[in-house]
């Protein structure tokens, strides 16, 4: 009988849960209600939790509170999509509940699950029942009601309640009932809890190589900058274990502030997490050892990494002198404001850049960038104020979390599509304050209709429409508006339903899998149907979506 969870056992539980979730991510993805190729929930939750598994697998912890804190931080930085962010918030609350404990008893863990539930609910502006939130709420209730002292019985009660609640989600949301599936996020959470239970039962899920899932990560577009533009060559990351847990990191922060950029100093009681791009990592480390002992020091030469990524020649070494090497790169001046947008496709990236967007995060529906990806892009702008355009409903929460991980002022305009993001970018007013500019952008987002054409990944029936795998799907505002076997007919039907005689501008962005001549033929058809509107055609180059449509 296990009546205490210490750091070593918690570590095994996390590794077991991560592998359980990643083993079943395809099954979770298949629960997505819409038959479009989004691959969101299972992939996002798997990558989010695998980030925690990588972190905890590399270190040893003296107390369960330390291990839980590491999981909370790693899931926050690696959070992808709504489901990944909610999962990260659950473990943020769990970490708070286990704070200061060397080992946790059943009552301790029950209280931690309750805090995890409350933290997740508070992170969502409009919580929806019938989702992962309902599942964690019922699991927390079962945990609080458990009267025994053994964790085997505890997690048996929690998982049984979770499975029962998950089954009921089918009836709790109309879209789940129509598709006859359970909530995907709730199912992902259950795989995590089942992984915990398996470890406690002495049969942990066999651990895969920790690098699994890395290929699915949405990388920032390295081609957008040149190697010689990298001012600070060494990405320096480490953790400081304080000599005095009550000591402040303010003096250390001030000592290194002028020695690089993209600086992040997170003071978490006994430890300080440090990240900085600098040309003198030795100086940074010398300052850090005055505060405490160094753990997990990692220094990467970003110039060499960048040269390798873009296939270019490596920069010449200046006799190993980092300061001399830095002189080769012009300084990127600090600015007051920058805009960062999420987009996939060379054409869309260029369009955003032409509108004054400083940074592009490569990503979208099938590859949601993580909070850390968004944070890196914001820091790379070297701007005091950064406005993020997520351009996808599944990226908004990840963008929101980035605000808590940097000293920069980050504002998130909740654009849910590429057309909304472009409308927001067009509203840029250099004379406006960041706060006023966000208001203008939000107004612009509400003035545009968004549509897209993609394909069905499975047979289903939804919204009164029978859909076969491979059918073309026209989506208007997130709803299926047209289904067909002809791409042009499906796209034309979608646009006819979105536009009317009062429409002034109809913009079509054709994707990587559409020939220019085919796109031009569709544009001509739209012009004939709506002669009073300006019909604009652009090469978006986006994957997955044959067309992205904007109507104003």
Commentary on this structure:
The protein is of the alpha/beta class and 552 residues long. It has four domains: 7-208, Serine Threonine Protein Phosphatase 5, Tetratricopeptide repeat (Alpha Horseshoe); 231-326, YebC, transcriptional regulation domain (Alpha-Beta Plaits), CATH 3.30.70; 335-445, 3-Layer(aba) Sandwich (Rossmann fold), CATH 3.40.50; 449-551, Hypothetical Protein Tm841, Chain: A,domain 3, CATH 3.30.1180. 45% of the residues lie in helices and 18% in strands. The chain has 21 helices and 16 strands. It has helices spanning 7-23, 25-29, 41-57, 64-78, 81-98, 106-123, 132-145, 151-172, 174-179, 184-200, 250-256, 281-288, 302-310, 322-326, 346-354, 371-380, 396-402, 418-426, 434-445, 487-498, 516-529, and strands spanning 234-242, 260-268, 271-278, 292-301, 335-343, 359-362, 383-389, 409-412, 449-455, 460-462, 465-467, 472-476, 479-484, 505-510, 534-539, 547-551. The chain has a six-stranded mixed sheet with strand order 13-12-9-16-14-15. The protein has a four-stranded antiparallel sheet with strand order 2-3-1-4, sandwiched between helices. It has a four-stranded parallel sheet with strand order 6-5-7-8, with helices on both faces. Helix 6 (106-123) runs antiparallel to helix 7 (132-145) and helix 8 packs antiparallel against helix 10. The longest helix has 22 residues, at 151-172. The radius of gyration is 25 Å and the shape is globular. The N and C termini lie far apart (65 Å). Residues 209-227 and 308-332 have low confidence and may be disordered.
């Amino acid at each position: 009988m296990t009546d205490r969870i210490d750091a070593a056992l918690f570590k095994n539980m996390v590794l077991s849960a991560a592998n359980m979730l990643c083993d079943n991510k395809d099954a979770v993805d298949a629960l997505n209600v819409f038959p479009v190729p989004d691959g969101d929930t299972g992939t996002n939750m798997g990558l989010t939790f695998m980030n925690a598994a990588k972190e905890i697998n590399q270190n040893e912890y003296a107390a369960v509170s330390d291990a839980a804190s590491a999981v909370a931080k790693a899931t926050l930085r690696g959070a992808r999509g709504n489901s990944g962010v909610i999962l990260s918030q659950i473990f943020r609350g769990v970490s708070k509940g286990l704070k200061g404990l060397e080992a946790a008893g059943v009552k301790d863990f029950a209280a931690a699950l309750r805090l995890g539930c409350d933290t997740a609910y508070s992170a969502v502006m409009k919580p929806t029942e019938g989702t992962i939130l309902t599942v964690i709420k019922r699991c927390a209730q079962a945990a609080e009601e458990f009267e025994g002292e053994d964790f085997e019985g505890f997690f048996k009660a929690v998982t049984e309640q979770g499975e029962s609640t998950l089954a009921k989600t089918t009836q709790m949301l109309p879209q789940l009932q129509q598709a006859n599936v359970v909530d995907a996020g709730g199912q992902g959470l259950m795989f995590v809890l089942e992984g915990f239970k398996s470890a406690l039962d002495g049969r942990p899920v066999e651990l895969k190589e920790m690098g699994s899932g890395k290929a699915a990560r949405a990388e920032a577009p390295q081609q957008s900058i040149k190697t010689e533009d990298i001012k600070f060559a060494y990405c320096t990351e480490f953790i400081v274990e304080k000599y005095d847990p009550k000591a402040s990191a303010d003096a250390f922060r001030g000592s290194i502030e002028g020695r690089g950029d993209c600086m992040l100093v997170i003071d978490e009681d006994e430890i300080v997490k440090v990240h900085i791009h600098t040309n003198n990592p030795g100086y940074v480390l010398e300052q850090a050892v005055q505060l405490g002992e160094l753990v997990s020091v990692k220094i990467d030469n970003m110039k060499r990494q960048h040269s390798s990524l873009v296939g270019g020649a490596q920069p010449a070494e200046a006799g190993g002198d980092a300061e001399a090497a830095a002189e080769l790169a012009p300084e990127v001046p600090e600015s007051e404001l920058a805009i960062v947008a999420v987009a996939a496709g060379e054409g869309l990236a260029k369009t955003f850049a032409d509108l004054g967007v400083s940074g592009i995060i490569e990503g979208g529906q099938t590859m949601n960038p993580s909070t850390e990806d968004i944070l890196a892009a914001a820091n790379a702008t070297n701007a005091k104020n950064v406005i993020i355009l997520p351009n996808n409903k599944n990226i908004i929460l990840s963008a929101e979390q980035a605000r808590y991980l940097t000293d920069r002022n980050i504002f998130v305009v909740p654009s849910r599509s590429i057309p909304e993001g472009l409308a927001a970018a067009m509203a840029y007013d250099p004379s406006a304050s960041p706060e006023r500019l966000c208001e203008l952008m939000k107004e612009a987002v509400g003035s545009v209709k968004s549509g897209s054409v993609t394909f069905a990944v499975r047979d289903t029936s939804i919204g009164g429409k029978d859909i076969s795998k491979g059918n073309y799907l026209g989506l208007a505002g997130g709803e299926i508006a047209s289904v067909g076997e002809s791409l042009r007919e499906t796209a034309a039907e979608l646009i006819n339903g979105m536009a009317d005689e009062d429409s002034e501008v109809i913009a079509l962005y054709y994707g990587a899998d559409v020939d220019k001549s085919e796109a031009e033929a569709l544009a001509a058809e739209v012009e004939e149907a709506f002669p009073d509107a300006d019909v604009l055609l652009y090469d978006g180059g986006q994957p997955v979506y044959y067309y992205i449509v904007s109507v104003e």
